[in-house]
Amino acid sequence: DGGITQSPKYLFRKEGQNVTLSCEQNLNHDAMYWYRQDPGQGLRLIYYSQIVNDFQKGDIAEGYSVSREKKESFPLTVTSAQKNPTAFYLCASSNSGSRETQYFGPGTRLLVL
Amino acid sequence: GNSVTQMEGPVTLSEEAFLTINCTYTATGYPSLFWYVQYPGEGLQLLLKATKADDKGSNKGFEATYRKETTSFHLEKGSVQVSDSAVYFCALTDSGLDMRFGAGTRLTVKP
Nearest-CA residue of chain B relative to A42? Predict the structure, then answer.
């Protein structure tokens, strides 16, 4: 089955710790995205990548970092600089080109201990 | 910039009632419009989409028509079921890389 997987489903972060969220897709999509969702709110774009080894900041990139070494993978690191990391994180992918549908993974819920 | 405004929730309906969730948009170009659905603890699933004016997207009994003259893409369903309880998001993109989402509307359907 083609799709997007995210792991872990739940992640706990201690003060001062960096944590990495995994996102893998087997849809052969060129573009991948990370969004943050807070309770009762819409999605806000953190980072996106159109091709391997290239990525761009979204609306709320501060305190986050990404890499895109493989087409299938787009991990997100939540650094200690992100002071309010508790949220639901969603990864998505799409074909390149304008106005394409984005397809989402099941999400990772990050909680701070 | 582009933006989406959707009806505030929560919306509570009885089973078999008619559903409308309003969505209006602001865009500088010619966007594609989407409705996504999110069940508790899960990611977003594409419900339907429309790519040009007067197109009607439909899926699982849900429909929405791309109205350029009123810049709207309202979601409708003639008879809701308990299993339709979820959060619904309206979204648009005109670049493929800059998708804008509404705040979401929570729907609860009671038996």
Answer: B103
Residue B83 Ramachandran class (φ > 0 left, ψ -120 to 50 alpha, else beta): alpha
Exposed e or buried b per residue across A44-76, where buried means at least 16 C-beta atoms within 10 angstroms of its C-beta: ebbbbbeebeebeebeebeebbbbbeebbebbb
- Give the nearest chain B residue to A89 (CA atoms): B43
Q: Is the dihedral of CA B99, B100, B103, B108 positive or negative?
A: negative
In whole angstroms, give the CA distance from residue A50 to residue B95: 12
CB of A4 closer than 8 Å to CB of A91: yes
Q: Do B44 and A101 touch (CB under 8 A)?
A: no
CB contact under 8 A, B104 and A103: no
CB–CB contacts below 8 A, A to B: 61
Put simply, whether A94 touches B (Cβ < 8 Å) is yes
pLDDT per position as a tens digit, B24-55: 999 988 899 999 999 988 999 999 999 999 99
Q: In whole angstroms, give the CA distance from residue A56 to residue A44.
A: 14
* Residues of chain A found within 8 Å of residue B89, distances taken between Cβ atoms: 42-43
The per-residue pLDDT for range A57-98, each reduced to its tens digit, is 999 999 999 999 999 999 999 998 888 999 999 999 998 876
